[in-house]
Amino acid sequence: MTISKTSSGSRARTFLTRLEGPQTMGRGPAFWIAVTVAAAAAAAYPLIADAWTVGNAAYFLIWTFMAMGLSVIWGYAGVLSFGQTAFFGLAGYAYGVITLNLGAAYGLTILALVLAVVIGGLFALVIGYFMFYGRIQGVFIGIVTLSVTLVLETFMAQTAGPQWRIGEARLNGFNGMSGMPPLTLPWFGGDIVLYPGPSLYYLLLGLVVVSYLGLRIMLNSRFGNVLVAIRENPHRVAMLGYDVRLYQTLAFAIGGAFAALSGALYTAWGQYITPSSMGLTSAALPIVWVAVGGRRDITATLIGTIIVLAGFQMLTIYGSQYALIVMGGLLLVTVLVAPQGLVVGAMTLLGRIFRRGKS
Amino acid sequence: MALFQSVFAMLYQFGDTFAFLVISCAGLAVIFGMMGVINLAHGEFIMCGAYVTASAARGGLPLPLAILTGALVAGAVGMVVERLVIRHLYQRPLDSIIATWGISLIATQGVLIVLGSTMQGIGTPLGSIDVGGRSYSLYRLVLMACALGLLGGLYLLFYHSRFGVIARATIQKPQMAYALGVNTGRMYGLTFGLGAALAGLAGGLYAPTMTMVPTMGATFIVESFVTVVVGGADIFVGAAPAAAILALIKAGLTAWYGQLFGQIGLLVTVILVIRILPGGLSGWLKGTTR
Amino acid sequence: MTRNRPTLAGLMAGAAMALVAGAPAFAQEGPIRIGVLEDQSGDFAAATMVKVHAIELAAKEINDAGGIDGRPVELVVYDTQSDNRRYQEFMRRVLQSDKVDVVFAGFSSASREAYRPIVNQFDGLAFYNNQYEGGVCDNNMIVTGAVPEQQFSTLIPWMMEEYGPNVYTLAADYNFGQISAEWVRQIVEENGGTMVGEEFIPLGVSQFGQTIQNIQATEADFVVTLLVGAAQASYYEQASSASVGLPMASSVNVGQGYEHKRFTPPSLANMFVTTNYIEEIDTPASKDFVERFHAMFPDEPYINQEAANSYIAMNLYKQMVERAGTTDHDAIRAVLAEGDVCFDGPSGNVCLDPKSQHMSHTIYLAKVNDDHSISFPKVWEDIKPYWLGEAGCDLTKNDPSAQYTPSSPPPAQ
């Protein structure tokens, strides 16, 4: 995947040129070879790993969308959202309600997935409009978004009664909604049900690659440059004639849609969604993943999220009670020692060594 | 008599909620309102105060002294935390969220491992009084008095003492204060320590009325953030009326529509207040916006 | 305060036990692997740590006596951190990767609902050893905890007879509280009483000033407290300091979270609880159980009903495997369908009901005295989990894998 710097006339070429640029780390053949190798390794992984490990890896991939969305909002647009789980949970419930009512035939689960993402994204758009056009700034964004997700959690937790149903779907309160079908692909000679396993893993891997490359293009385009400019100096950007509020709102909606994608996929993965997925602890988790990896770079966020998810799970399996303490310590170390994020730090270091080796 | 009874009942409910909001938000108001640090470990300082208070009280110390001990220990812990962690993050408020969350995780789980999953309570002192056929806890009335005393004390401290003037100067214009010979590092430490001590005081005051578990701080944290945010930057102009208004909303909604609406109403209020008054009540009262 | 035991130690202890005790005596078939998913940290740890210990005790006793059908028992323990997601991750792990024969899992109903689709997907077998709101009709689940009809059909009529017909219910605002409150309402009406109040409290609420006033404003004869979690437990202290002074009836307290040990007397005085086991029960079998428990875990703060249920579940599983001659789930279900799988354990004789795969219990009425000691004014023997079967759940015939409630019962056949 080599890309010439000279801009040819073709639109597609310009488009692909944006795969690298000032807003994303990594450029040149070496980086893209590494990406290709990583993708190939990920694709070959199910051949060597057992069924549980593959299903578990698929589970980690589910969360990366929410993390990448938060990276756009927080790392690139400079707005800390503490309530990505609101969109996550809303989409999860939307997927549940739609599939429980429509069933899994004819690829309707895919439609439900798309609708859930649209619903989550629209909700983020509305909240974003409400906040940015109301000139809410800084830490107050965090508090408003956190309040939104806590309101949703508190409300959903008490919907156990039979009156809380949408069509066939009972919301089922704190215990959570279950019984929705997993993602099902229509296929000749019988539908393919994507239980956690290699087939779901490949679907998710494909989605991650597409999202990652798509986000790289977006972030290196004019839109991404304006977002970063807003993060660095909103007043100057406004003086240059850009509508800061519009850009922030759009970035927020995009981030919300990614959180919604995670939510719908999570619900399909476990056939289960609960109000506690919108609670305080859940809301803090994406921030941890993104911060530890490095919020200002989409690649670092992606790698960091997977490392943190896998690391904490290992800690829980082998470190037991001490897992949460190590997790807290890790956060402290990240903030104090590598404020850019551990993965960004490592990548910068690698880049420096690489350049030194060259010269 | 019936009228008096229901008026008293309403006042009591209002005062009870007001006291809870004021006491639980005071520490946060100093740390967030004055220093701009979002302290997600606020609840753990409260837990620290409560645990120390309970241990001291069971060790034979009279309750008021035990509460004081709880506040002092929490304050000391706060100063250590400030020195080790928070000091490096004043320029990066968003990072301080992550750091304090890390501290909160370590504290909660550490206490669980070291002290076990629960601690025996110490029981509420003072018994109850009868008003119009219903009984009310006397200790709750003491808490209301404490809330008022706390507001008064903080006002005196920050506006009529040398410490307060220097603290405010340090936080508003650190370079200027430093140039004038103030040891700004020490002032930051003391202010953070004061905030932590106030959180510890909240824990101590509520320790006799609550279940003692490592996660007990979490029940305070939403309410305290809501109050501080609605109040805005200036805690004295903002926090007291904010607590009053929120107490009215919460007590009213809880009385007429049940606890669920009390909870949700509080959160919706904060969303609306931020939207309409970005500077909080204090910003609005002072006729300025940030 | 006692210290909690790290899981790792438990895991190794379990493995070591199996190895040491097992070496010469066992047949060549390899151990029977039992997955244990319980919350050893997080909100629920206070009530669930003891469940893990009870399972370890049962495993040790079974291994010392020659194992299950000559095969040693091996425990695979994970800490689920009171987090539903961990249940999803680890349930898949024990079933897919560790390939356990049976799983003992879950404290909160939410955690059970989180892992149940996974158990169904892999056609596993899970024991849920908790008292809960009832209604799970699922071939892959065996429930040993008590359910509302067992606890309320005994408790409420007794309380109404003793204290009067006016009842105030205070319940946590989620599935367990709402469904339990529904049961209370129904039983009160059947017995000619009146609900003078019913209030639902969101989880996590810790301030009860208004609630206490609401109760005092009514002519309630007693209060049914279905409060859950550490925050809501603050109610007792606050009600006591406001001198509410009404008797309380509950199905969750004391038997699960040993509030009478944790709170200062007399905040829980005059609380009546129906439970299928607590460590104060004064029978020889119970005393013996407590003694053996403390011999292995001297620091155990309290042996609650869930611990007894977990212990009983291990022994029931042993019996069913031995009778089936295999750990195959269909064969085990066939044994269960015979309807005589019983065990005479610490809580008295219990039997599994083939229709619902729930368990009958001896229900003890525990009264908390002023000094927080416990007395037992009444004992009901052999109370059956009748509701699911009567409502139309029959797992010997079909498997809906659903959870029903009185207001949404199984569809008519």
Structure description:
- The complex is a heterotrimer of chains A (359), B (290) and C (413).
- Chain A is mostly helical.
- Chain A has a domain at 50-277.
- Chain A is 70% helix and 3% strand.
- Chain A has a two-stranded antiparallel ribbon with strand order 1-2. Chain A has a two-stranded antiparallel ribbon with strand order 3-6. Chain A has a two-stranded antiparallel sheet with strand order 4-5.
- In chain A, helix 3 (51-76) crosses helix 11, helix 3 (51-76) packs across helix 12 and helix 4 (84-102) runs parallel beside helix 6 (139-157).
- The longest helix of chain A is centred in the last third of the chain and has 27 residues, at 244-270.
- Chain A is globular and about 60 Å long.
- Chain B is globular, with a radius of gyration of 19 Å.
- Chain B is mostly helical.
- Helices cover 75% and strands 3% of the residues of chain B.
- A two-stranded antiparallel ribbon of chain B has the order 1-2.
- Chain B has a single domain (2-285), classed as Orthogonal Bundle (ABC transporter involved in vitamin B12 uptake, BtuC).
- In chain B, strand 1 (128-131) and strand 2 (134-137) form a beta hairpin.
- Chain C has 413 residues and is α/β, with parallel strands linked by helices.
- Chain C has 14 helices and 16 strands.
- Chain C has helices at residues 7-22, 45-64, 84-97, 109-121, 148-163, 175-190, 209-217, 229-232, 234-241, 259-262, 284-296, 305-324, 329-337, 386-391; strands at 32-38, 73-79, 102-105, 126-128, 136-137, 141-143, 166-172, 194-201, 222-226, 248-250, 271-275, 342-345, 348-351, 361-368, 374-383, 402-403.
- In chain C, the strands form four sheets. A seven-stranded mixed beta sheet of chain C has the order 8-7-9-10-11-14-15, sandwiched between helices. A five-stranded parallel beta sheet of chain C has the order 2-1-3-4-6, with helices on both faces. A two-stranded antiparallel ribbon of chain C has the order 5-16.
- Chain C is globular, with a radius of gyration of 21 Å.
- The N and C termini of chain C lie far apart (54 Å).
- In chain C, 63% of the residues are buried.
- Residues 1-27 of chain C have low confidence and may be disordered.
- At the A-B interface, helix 6, helix 11 and helix 13 of A face helix 4, helix 9 and helix 11 of B.
- Chain B: It comes from marine sediment metagenome.
- Chain B: It is found in: Cell membrane.
- Chain B: InterPro entries: ABC_transp_permease, BCAA_transport_permease.
